[in-house]
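Board notes (copied after class):
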Amino acid sequence: MYSYSTIVMITIAVMLSLGFLTLFIIQLVMGAMHFNKCPVQPMFPWLNLVSGSTGMLLFLAVPMIFLFCKLKWKKLITCLIILVTILALFFLVWTIYSNYARFSASNSMNIMQYENATLSTYCHPQLAEVTRGTFITLDVILGLSTCLVSGGAAAS
């Protein structure tokens, strides 16, 4: 049977996976719903769309590696591992860029307004808040995941 620590690690991994999935769906929906609704920061929808779609691809591709391992499809496993590695590196670079773009937008946050959509300083309030919130949450979840993975590797 599984040890207590193994059950705890599996539970935490499932919870983090659900957190990632929820975050990626929120990013995709918000980026698509409010695509041209932030003239003051036109990158906000793109930050959400690219992050959400890349995250969803990773979320779907990683379990496929385990499936292909069970089926012993070595060539597909190799291709998928290469694809996941490239996607993960892109996702990491995109997350760093998104944080830079979001924090460098702090100057425009002072002039950003949410009432008059005809002005160039307008940004849809849900898009602005979701962009800030999802990337901060993503940073926290990525940090926790890194700690868990490195802690689990050190314990092995």
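Comment from the instructor: Helices lie at 4-33, 43-71, 74-104, 106-109, 125-155. The chain has a mean pLDDT of 85.
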